[in-house]
Amino acid sequence: MIKVEIDPRSGFCGGVIRAIGKAEQYLENQPRLYSLGEMVHNEAELERLGAKGLISLQHEDMARLPAGEALLIRAHGEPPATYAKASGLGLNIIDCTCPVVLRLQESILEAHRRLEGSGTIVIFGKIGHAEVLGLVGQVGGDAVVVENAAQLKEHLRKGDIKAPVELFSQTTMNPAEYEEICNYLISKGIALNAHNTICRQVADRHRLLADFAKGHDVIVFVSGSLSSNGRVLFELCRSVNSRTYMAGTVADIDASWFRPGDSVGVCGATSTPKWLLEEVARHISTLS
Ligand code: SF4
Would you state the pLDDT for residue 288? Predict the structure, then answer.
């Protein structure tokens, strides 16, 4: 008999719930809504929203939309250039940027003004990630993005980073790695103004998810393959529980992962819908 428990804290974060709610509300009265980039990094949820009329498109496709169409900006946010382009094309923006990301964008802009060209904005984040592009776009690209301490050291060695440093983080990064970056800058005596901008919901989840993963024999981590937060949280689970497996949907579940009597924890990223966690948990229960 396999015992299955769903992590009560897994499921969409507030920013994603808000964005999906706005999209669904719009689609109640309209046949379609274009989303700039995928609304949420979860294929199963995208399929559900697609059936209601949500269509994902990329930046290069914007110019093909007729004026007057609605364009959704997702929770990750966008740089100012995107707003300018959409407004030039006569598109109606439905702005679903998460309020936490909006505050972060504003803080970066303020820090950039404060520096007056005499220091460096450093962003700990994933190069090319939509949220990071939105952050860097606030300051016209005048920021250094590092994905880890090794990249920070390399930029310091090449002289790309000048003191004082205003340090920010993409909202979904690993708090322990952020601290490592801070500590390295401090150890080098670099004047630092560190803004820990990791989203509280994400930071709390790191701590509580590790406890959840330790408390079960097997962890099934449910996430879309494109979710950056999903990869970070999956690795976190695997670091404390070697029997951690990733599944996008029920179809990825392999019965050989489980042994009789196992206690199985089902959890997911901030982009994993609750209904999918429940579906996966139900399926695992039928395997015993
Ligand atoms: S993880 Fe936090 S900052 Fe990012 S969208 Fe969700 S609530 Fe907003």
Answer: 66
Question: Quick one: which atom of ligand 1 is closest to the CA of 76?
Answer: 5
Q: Is the CB of 203 under 6 A from ligand 1?
A: no
Catalytic residue list: 131
* CATH number of the structural domain spanning residue 90: 3.40.50.11270
pLDDT of res. 31:
95
| Domain, as residue range, for 207 | 3-11+201-286
Q: How many angstroms is it from 233 CA to the middle of ligand 1?
A: 14
Q: Considering 198, 225, 248, which residue would you say is the last residue of a domain?
A: 198
| CATH code: domain of residue 258 | 3.40.1010.20
Torsion region of 68: left, alpha or beta (phi above 0 gives left; psi -120 to 50 gives alpha): left
**End-of-domain residue from the set 158, 176, 198:** 198
pLDDT (average), residues 119-141: 96
Integer CA distances (angstroms), 27 to 47, 50, 53, 73, 156, in order: 15, 10, 7, 15, 49
| Ligand 1 nearest-atom number relative to CA 199 | 2
pLDDT tens profile 215-256? 999 999 999 887 777 888 999 999 999 999 999 999 999 999
